[in-house]
Structures are given as C-alpha cells and as structure tokens.
Amino acid sequence: MKSASIITIGSEIVEGIILNTNAKYLSEKLTQSGLKVKRHLSVDDNLDDIVEAIKLSMRDCDMIILSGGLGPTEDDKTREAVAIALGRKLVLNEKLRDSIKTRLSQYHKYIAANNDRQAMIIEGATIIPNKVGSAPGQLINHEGKILILLPGPPQELIPMFESVLVDLKIDKEFTTISMLFFAIAESTLDEMIVNLSPDPAIKIATQASYADGIRVRFTCAVQDYEKANELAAKLIDKIKDHFIGFGDTTLEQTVVKCLKEKNKTLSVAESCTGGMISSRIVSVPGASEVFLGGIVAYDNSVKSKLLKVSDEVLMKYGAVSEQCVVQMAHGIKQLTGSDLAISVSGIAGPSGGTDEKPVGTVFLCVVGDGVEKVTQLFYPQERNIFRMRVSAYGLYLVLKALNCVV
User: Fold this and answer.
1) Phi, psi (5° rounding) for residue 10?
2) Which of 94, 90, 91 is nearest to 82 (CA)?
3) For domain 251-401, which CATH number applies: 2.40.170.10, 3.50.50.60, 3.40.50.970, 3.90.950.20?
4) CA 54 from chain center: how many Å?
5) Average pLDDT for residues 190-218, to the nearest whole number?
6) What digits encode the pLDDT tens for the residues 155-180?
7) CATH for 3-168?
8) pTM
C-alpha cells in the first residue's frame, strides 16, 4: 500500500496560534484515495528543519505533501527547502511573475518586488494554479516519489489539492464507506455494529462531534467492499431515523439538499444559538434557493416586536418555554412567508438558570405543512458547546419535519 507524509510549515502552527486543519483535511482525502498516511510533521519556518523533514519523509513515503511557506515574505522557505532536498535549481518563471503582478494590481497600487519569490519554480516542477490567492502550488516527480507543494490558507489549499487528486489517478488498494448519524449515542451505535457481527476484514471507526453527530467509517481492501457495503446497509436499516447521509456530508448540507428536493423554503428564529443555525445553512452553496432568512431575537423586546410573541406568554411562561418558541416559529414563518420555520430559545449559561429551568434547558419548535412540533432538550455544558449541540439538533428537526430522516 502506498504511503504519504504531510508536512505543515509555519511558526503559527507549531506555536499553537492557529489550528492545523490542513493536516486533518489532507489525511482524510489521502485515506479516501487509498493511501496510508504514515506521519504528520509540523515544522517552524526554518530552512534546515524543513529540509530535514522532507528527507525523512522521502526515505519511506511515496507521496509528500507540504503546506505553507509559499508566500512572498522572507520566512517563506518551502520552495528553497524542497529544491535543496532534491538537489534541484529554483528558476524564475517570468510569465508566472507577470501573471501574479497583474492579479495583485487589481487590489494594490504598489506591488513589492518580493512577490517575485512566488514565481520561483523548482526545476522540472508542474505549476498548480491558485484561483483564490497569489501563491501557485507545485508538483514534482522525483525518483518515483511525488511531492506536492500547496499554500497554507485552507480556502486556497483545498481546491488546489482536489484538482491535483483528479490527475494523480491513484490505484486504490483500500476503500472507505463513511456515514453520518445523529441523535444517537456513540456507545449505542458501536454496540449495534458489534451485534451485526462484522467481518474481521472491515476496520470500524466512530468519531463523535458536537456539531454533526457520529461519523462511522468502514475501511477495507477493495476486494472486500461488498462486505462493508452490506454491513452499512444493515446498520442504516436498523436506525433509519438517525442516518443523515454518506461521505463528508454535514447536517446543513443535507438540510439544503432536502429542501431543494422537496421544493420547500425555510426561515429561522433564534435566541440562545445567536444565529448559528442560520450561519450553518448559509455556509452551504445554493442555500439562497431555499433559505429565506432568520432573526436573532436575543432580547425579549425583539421577540415581541418582530416575532409577535405576546406579553402574556413572556410574563406567564418566560422566553424559555414551549409557548414562546411556538409563537416565535409562527412569527418568523408569517414574516418571511416560508414553507417551514424553526425557532429556538434556551439558557446557554453560565448564569440565568433556575431550579425549574436550569442552565442547559432549551426549547425548539418546527412549524409548517401541518406540522407543529416542540422539542425540549437539556444540555448542561459550556455555552458554545451548548450552542453547537442545539444548532445541530435544530437542523436534525428540520430534516425530520421534511421526512428526510424517517
């Protein structure tokens, strides 16, 4: 089985200033493509350290991916380090230099001379175009090894790497079936899988997330794919009402997809989640076709003025109540004219709770198409974990209302 090494470069990574999301993304994509990720290395902006990391990975890996250090500044050492490690020259690509300058001139009046560094190409490398930023990537075949140089910003790295994967045509020895489940405990899901007596040839992994639920992966040799597929089908059949989808899908992606398929529109009224449900939905391309809008009614005055929650309800039952979320949902639905609406109000903490309604109490309501369903939950956790869990459950309730999970 071919192996890969991921080298992420930059002082901001090794000093813990930013989260190394590139290593996670690259590992996931490489594994799905049939490669074994042998190691992650994070290296400071030091030329000798980067060279050593490259040489270490070249000893026992078929593919080395480097992210970061391709910018125009003095601390961007990746191109030089790779050239040294491979014993190749760096050559200025004048056409690329002019292209970078033309692009930068759209945003800046003065173009510094150090931008030429981004047009320095390792001898024999193929340029990987960067449609988002100014730093191009590079792909090098060297003595049977493949080296891929990518910029650090994820919004640049991701589309560039995916364009490269299409051309690499890696022969897959292993395959993975990935599934997302929600509103079920990881331990319960694991027990269900064990009770299905999976074939030992299938490697099983589960991963819990506050934001999305439980992701289950079945990994096996290509020749054992049918066994894994049968196991997945049996598991889904047992808990259809918790199955969200295959692959890298998220709750919000599934909501947008389902709304489109059902030709329905959605609006949102949020209090304790502070716009998180709306934010998750609009992060999905094409959400504008089905999402009409949302209101963050954090203060009671906004609930009453914009969502028409009655003073009687607020006085008698409080903002965190079944009665309040029902009126909030009907209010946003009427205001936007959406087919479906969801509302949420709760106590995120750390203060504000009572004996009757402790911190972590939350009510959600979905209305539309003859549906009016209120759900009460209790998540006594740190306020931002609480918000993530509640927003996720809100998306799940939308899928339930649309009969996209049954």
Assistant:
1) 145, 135
2) 90
3) 3.90.950.20
4) 28
5) 95
6) 999 999 999 988 887 777 788 899 99
7) 3.40.980.10
8) 0.81
